[in-house]
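Minutes, project check-in
Item: structure for the 257-residue chain
Input as provided by the requester:
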Amino acid sequence: MSAPDSPAHFHALLQLRGRTAAWPAAAAAAAGLGRIVQAEEYLSQAQWTVLKSAECSYATHSLLHRNLGLLYMAKENYEEARYHLANDIYFASCAFGTEHIRTSGGYFYLANIFYGLKKLDLADTLYTKVSEIWNKYLNNHYQVLSQARTQQVDLLGKQFETDTGLDEAQEAEAIQILTSILKIRESTSDKAPQKTIFVLKILFMLYYLMVNSSKAKEYAMRALDLAKEQQLSVHEQNTIQDLLNLISAEEAHSITW
């Protein structure tokens, strides 16, 4: 086991508490539960340990700055939050690449700051980048695995289980990020319906890969309804209809099986 003050120890704790300390800290701030001080004390200790070590990976630095960025967002200190999120993006890019889903979280939280500050063009650019990163990741899985599922249904008459390639925490984070972006897109869907439909289709792929056909169908239906309402191209409508047809075909096979 890692020593209590080692970088590896704090990396493990940041992985655990990054989802149980910093995130609830934001909610706790609004609810007046007083967890901000506790989170700040912990992260100060983690920061001191990580930064004094030459052994820490880029991923650990990214995780530390992500948590610090969320903490300062909760404290409404947006300058400090932007500083730490910029560092999060830098270190995540070094560790995983600029277009990786692990890096996209930093873009997302930075976009939230710009959105809150009414810097809507900057926020829009970052939300688009996050959406494109998740679309590329999920589409790669979707194209391969949807074919495998269809073939399995055709050959064996039963569904083929698929996988997002994400762990449970990452799936929850993907849902949180994408549904948050969707709410923002829906608020301006009359001006840019394609952006809303784009996120709806990404959520379809996510839930399809999670083998949650009811949620996948829900998002595809919402995309199709919006495409019809906004009178988008027949090609766009047909593309969305193909998604619904895929779900319907699998449900039919599941019933007959």
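Outcome recorded: The chain is about 80% helix and 0% strand.
No further action items on this chain.
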